[in-house]
Design goal:
The protein has about 150 residues and is an alpha+beta fold. It has one domain (about 5-150): Roll (Nuclear Transport Factor 2, Chain: A), CATH 3.10.450. The protein has helices spanning about 5-20, 25-30, 50-60, 130-140; strands at about 30-40, 45, 65-80, 80-95, 100-115, 115-125, 130, 150. About 25% of the residues are buried.
Length: about 150
């Protein structure tokens, strides 16, 4: 049996892999119905349906390609709840290679064990724009660390 920390690390790895593959259905299984995402300069995104709607708006256009890493800095498990903070770097590129966005920074996440499975319930995403070359070098350097999850 995996430890809670291993299960949470696997959730992050699955999230990153599913995001790269454009697998929204898998990503949605990793979050609670009442999930809340906090993003700088934007109103909170509340609920799994709001996340799905935002992702659906992107998929109606040409789907960008995602690359990135999540380097978990800390996981603390407190019974049925856990928190985690990570360094995240994401590069999204439009088909044809035109850069769309590059962001890097930290996330603070709260998870809850529901029906024996860890799900994301709250996420404060503090990523800010960076140059694509800076993000690429972060993605490449983090991709070689064992504590990183690469998309």
């Amino acid at each position: 049996m995996q430890s809670d920390e291993q299960e949470i690390r696997q959730l992050v790895a699955t999230w990153m892999t599913a995001t790269k593959a454009g697998d929204l259905e898998t990503v949605l299984t990793l979050m609670a119905e009442d999930v809340v995402f906090l993003l700088p300069g934007r109103p909170p995104m509340i609920g799994k349906s709001a996340f799905a709607a935002a992702a659906g708006a992107q998929s109606s256009q040409e789907r960008p390609q995602f690359d990135g890493t999540s380097e978990i800095q800390e996981i603390k498990v407190l019974g049925e709840w856990a928190f985690m903070w990570a360094k995240l770097s994401v590069v999204a590129t439009l088909p044809g290679g035109a850069p769309l966005m590059a962001r890097a920074g930290h996330t603070l996440s709260i998870l809850k064990k529901q029906n024996g499975k860890w799900v994301l319930t709250r996420d404060a995403n503090m990523l800010s724009p960076v140059s694509k070359s800076a993000a690429d070098s972060t993605v490449q350097s983090q991709g070689h660390r064992s504590s990183s999850t690469r998309v």
